[in-house]
Each structure stands twice: as structure tokens, then as C-alpha cells.
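Please go through the sequence line and C-alpha cell line underneath and see whether the fold suits the sequence. See right below:
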Amino acid sequence: RRCYQVGLVMSRSYAEVDVTQLTNIDDIKAAAAWLECEEARITQELDGVLDRQTHLDTQVGSLHMQLSNLQTAHKDAQKLAGTMSHTCDLAEKVSSKVRLLDLAKSRVQEAMKRVDDVLDLRSCVEGVQTAMEREDYEQSAAHIHRYLTLDENVLKETAVDAAEGSGIGGAFALLRDAEKRLKQIVTEKFDSAVKAVDDSGVERFLKIFPLLNLHFEGLDKFSAYLRTQISVSANAHLREALQVTGDRAGVVYADTLTLLFEDIAKLVEKHQPLVETFYGNSVLPCCHVVSLALCFYLLNAFTCNVEFVGLFRTWKDVTSGKGIAGMSRC
């Protein structure tokens, strides 16, 4: 405690004074006391440091061990980085080779396709001539359909020499001529089947139109055929209705229209699978619209019939209060 008090008093004065310059005995004694206190304090601090030496040695040893582990991890990280760099280089080389293989594969496939197209072209020329001679129009149309998918300019580019190129051009010329003749024949045969009311013939040539890229022409002709069928049926029912007398005369036209719509439904049900198969589902609404338009046309024809208009006007006069006397005929 004395050293503490002396230290508080003397620390400011003797900490910065050269004791070798002191001459007064009291100052020398005070400085000596202060130095003794400083020595005791420093000794105490050294003892504390020495007491912690074992703990410090343990921590230093742990640091040395961690340092060795860090060096090992650093070496492993460098090795891993080298491996990854080598792997990236190898992957880049492999991917470049794969790209080259894909390019070569696509070119080989393109070359094979062109070879197949040339073979198909020759097959179409030979097949269409043979089929036309046998009047096998379905097979002829199949060959023409395949020919229409070929690109003449592309196939000419694949020709090895001018002679082969001219041969390809000649083949296309023959197929174009065959296409023109086949379209004319199919149209004529279809029209003949319609005139002869040959359902099997109509269905046969109806299937050929899509193969010649004549979808709309085929549907137009088929719609005309359906209109003819419905018109014939409607006229037959109308003739029968005009001969009805007695109690059934008042409802005969309703019965006739019912029969007409039933006939139309039967025609649609009969031909719908054929049209769906060869023309697709999207064209069916068009056929239905044609049938519906024809129904309204025939309904209008019914309303213009003399007997029907007479009955209608009679009903109108009766309901309006004019009586039978006001009835007139068209």
C-alpha cells in the first residue's frame, strides 16, 4: 500500500526525471522509494506472465498444429484447382469434338435424306407410269403425293454431273405431266360417279383429291354431290306430300321436313368418318353449313308451294278474325 501511495505521488515527478542529477537527500530517498515500488510492480507482473507461460505454450503449440493443417489444406486446394483446370480443358476439348460430330451427323443425315429423295423420285416415276397403265389411280396419287414433297432445286444441287441433273429435271417433268393428267382423270371420274349416283365411285375418288393437294376442290365437289342427294330426297318427299289428303294433310309438311332432316343426318353420319380421315376434323363444320344452307333453301321452296301457302294464309286469316272469306292464294 505504501508503494502504491508513493507511486501515486512520485510517478508524475520522478518518471520523467534523471535520478543521476538529484543532489537533495530527500529527493534521492523519495526517488529510491519510488524505484523500489516500480521494481516490485514489475516483478509482480513478471510473476503473472510466468504463471501464464504454460497456457501460452499450449496456445502456441495449437497454433503450430493449425498452421501445419492450413499448409496441408493449402496444398490440397492447389491440387484441386489444378485438377479442375485440367478437367475444364478436357471438357472443352470433348465438347468441341462432340459439336464436330453433331455437325458431321447432321450433314450425313441430310445427305442420306437427299439420296432417299432421289431414290423416291425414281420410284415415283416408275410407279406412277405403271399405276396409270393399270388404272390404279390410288397408287398413282400416292406417288404423286410423295413427289409433291420433293424439292426439285435441292435435288438438282446434289447431282454429280450435268447429265444426272438433267435426268432429275426430266423426272420432275414427267411427274408434273402425270400429275396434270391424273387430276383431270380423277375430276372426270368423280363427276361420272356423281352422275351415275355411284356411291362407291364417289367415295373412291373423294379419297384421291387430298393426295393431289386438291382438298378444297374435293370438298366442293363432294358438297355439290350431297346437295344433289338431299335435293333428290326432298323432291321425292315433297311429291309424296302433295298426294296426301284427308286428316294427314294438315301435318304432312311437318312430317316431310322431319324426313328431310333425318335423311340429312343419315348422310352426315355415313360420310363423316370418310371426311375426317382424309380431310381432317376442321372441314366438317363447312360440310354441315352446306347441309344447313340447303335445308333452309328447301324450306323456302316448301313455303312457296301453293298448298302450303294456302294453308298458312288460312291459318293467318282465321287467327286474325277475317275468316275463310279473306283467304287468298298465291
